Amino acid sequence: MYEWMVTARHYEERLQEEYLEGKQPAFDISAGPIPGELHLAAGHEAVAAGVCAHLRDDDAVTATHRPHHVAIAKGVALKRMTAEIFGRRTGLCKGKGGHMHLFDPDVNFACSGIIAEGSPPAVGAALAAKKRNTDGVAVSFVGEGAIDQGGFLESLNLAAVHDLPVVFVIEDNDWAISMPKERVTDVADGSQRAAGFDMPGVRIDYDDAVAVHEAAEEAIMRARAGNGPSLLEVQVHRRMGHFMGDPESYRPEEDVERHRRLDSVARLADDLRSAGATDDEVKEIEERARERVEEAIAWAKDQPEPDPEEAYEDVFVERGERRQEPAATAGGED
Amino acid sequence: MAQAAAERELTMSRAMVEAIATEMRGNEEVFVMGEDVADYGGIFDSTQGLLEEFGRDRVMDVPISETAFIGAAVGAAQRGMRPIAELMFVDFFGVCMDQIYNQMAKNTYMSGGAVNVPMVLMTAVGGTYNDAAQHSQTLYGTFAHLPGMKVVVPSTAYDAKGLMHAAIRDDNPVVYMFHKRLMGLGWMPAPEGPKTPVPEEDYEIPFGEADVKREGDDATVVTLGLHVHRALEAAEALADEGVEAEVIDLRTLVPLDTETVVESVRKTGRLVVVDEDYRSFGVTGEIVARVAEEALSDLEAVRRLAIPDVPIPYARPLEREVNPGVEDIAEAVRATGA
User: Fold this and answer.
1) A19 contacts on B by Cβ (under 8 Å)
2) Do B94 and A114 touch (CB under 8 A)?
3) How far apart are CA B128 and CA B181, in angstroms?
4) Percentages helix, strand, coil for chain A, rounded to the nearest 5?
5) Any chain B CB within 8 A of the CB of A87?
6) Which of B300, B250, B257 is nearest to B277 (CA)?
7) pLDDT digits (tens), chain B, 338 positions
8) Residue B312: closest CA among chain A residues belongs to which residue?
9) Roughly how many angstroms between the first and final C-alpha of chain B, as a whole number?
10) pTM as predicted
11) Whether complex ipTM tops 0.90
């Protein structure tokens, strides 16, 4: 878990650097090596690691527009994911999806740029697992801002009424862009919504990866055993703006400080040391993570951009023959 | 001083906000509702500064629940208020379309005129900044296709203000689609053009009046939104070659000013329609069909430029390929034989 978390943290920090290149001094969202929006997940690592520790490659995960930490913990091919973020043809989606729309069928990972819209497909993946009599499960990650959305609530109901093996995980970072949680809901504990659908709901008030691991184990084993869905809410922290370039003028300084102080990665490192790990052992994990990230970024930047004509592949379009050859992936496997 | 005031230039977002603020001052029933419209001032600056003047009761941040808040705007409008609801990206309409096209757009008709829905639905459209298929669509055609709502697409600050005044005062539901790249955002540089002089006083630009943004005798380029500026740039390049293109900015899709377009084609004989929406079943087809109905014998050549029926891709070379650029427009005009 620690390795996933430090990989994700370092990855986000490095992406931030790469993203800002060429966008300064006057921030221009479409300039630089990584264009478009970039939503970083630094501060969300514990929930991804604690939940994904129980998942197999054949279990499905749908993540949000802030997907990198979950993707890393789920085992998404890091080099090809990075190439996708840099808009390269050897990326996971051949440069068509970008960072909010990563698909890796090898480990059954997908994400969506629209709030709460990953929940129904997770229910569908769970339905497929049930219909095929496997013990596969699905996990839908959403932010606390998404739980007021119809798609999320309808998914809870559908999963409950069909006893589907799906776990809904709310990453509560307190902020829906500029909206603090207390102004979008009168119910601070989002997991209480589970009661309305007669499923178990658990909230963990701090982003302790070990506590998440324990709670997630119960929910995922319950689903795997055929006992239906559950809801898990975890307090996490958004250490950066909603998207890169978000000035966060709406956010009180104390809140920013609090979120910086409460660091799940440092907490787990302390836990590891308390459990007997030496500094060298912890450092070794960090080094390994760092190398993997550097390697992925270097590889991705070295990849070719797609040819303009590839815009017409992967969709049926009235433009004569569709070209079939897939983008080369040689060297991109992790 | 008076002259300086008359020549002050505003970005498109400032012009929109000025119109909204003026209407809010003049009418207690006007209010704004949407995601990140209060403290943030709108992700695309469409409500910048309104919270400070009007407070949270009239500039309401809402939960991420588009079905609920757009439907609530419909309900408030039916009670005679004048809500302005913002759907952050037009791409998100899928989660709340029933409230838009079955409630907002149809309630007046279905009630036999017993209720009006005098609301404005503002939404950001367009790509050109590599944000991929769920955040870059334009979808002019989708909204213009469905009956019951007016559809407005400003391309300059001057138009944006006048169209916003008209939209808020209109007793029908109005969908006000603004292109992100035209707003004058610090983080998304605008082309030359959308920042224009804007009068301090309020004024309306009536719906259904296209604007001839550039006159020319050799070809008619019909477009809207961001592509007005691309077409103007293409026209300048063509002028160097001795080809004078007339550039028509539709400004509103519903109602649509067919007359101005037809008149121009009667003069030039050549029609190029440029749209950032998907090609099939959209604005380009509609314009060509109307011109064909009205002026078939004057029509010597037709070209259409639009997104070629693929979702908007992320990577730079791919997005550039599908989104009509300045050179694509110039080439299309040349291809008409102009």
Assistant:
1) none
2) yes
3) 8
4) 45, 10, 45
5) yes
6) B250
7) 445 555 799 999 999 999 999 999 999 999 999 999 999 999 999 999 999 999 999 999 999 999 999 999 999 999 999 999 999 999 999 999 999 999 999 999 999 999 999 999 999 999 999 999 999 999 999 999 999 999 999 999 999 999 999 999 999 999 999 999 999 999 999 999 999 999 999 999 999 999 999 999 999 999 999 999 999 999 999 999 999 999 999 999 999 999 999 999 999 999 999 999 999 999 999 999 999 999 999 999 999 999 999 999 999 999 999 999 999 999 999 999 99
8) A96
9) 46
10) 0.92
11) no
Contact state of B63 with A145 under an 8 Å Cβ cutoff = yes
DSSP state letter for B192: S
A49-79 burial, b if ≥16 CB within 10 A, otherwise e? Answer: bbbbbbbeeebbbbbbbbbbbbbbbbbbbbb
Q: How far is A157 from chain B (nearest CA, A)?
A: 17
Chain B: residue nearest A316 by CA?
Answer: B310
Alpha-carbon gap: B298 to the closest alpha carbon of chain A (Å): 29
> Which residues of A fall within a CB distance of 8 Å from B128?
30
How many residue pairs bridge chain A and chain B with CB atoms within 8 Å of each other? 149
Q: Could you give the CA distance from residue A282 to residue A56 in angstroms, rounded to a whole number?
A: 25
Under an 8 A CB cutoff, do A36 and B129 touch? yes
Token pair listed for A150: 């119809």
Residue B81 makes CB contacts below 8 A (sequence gap 6+) with B29, B30, B31
A216 contacts A55 by C-beta, under 8 angstroms? no
Return the residue matching tokens 């300039």.
Answer: A31
From B67, which residue of chain A is nearest by alpha-carbon distance? A150
Alpha-carbon span B20 to B171, nearest angstrom: 16
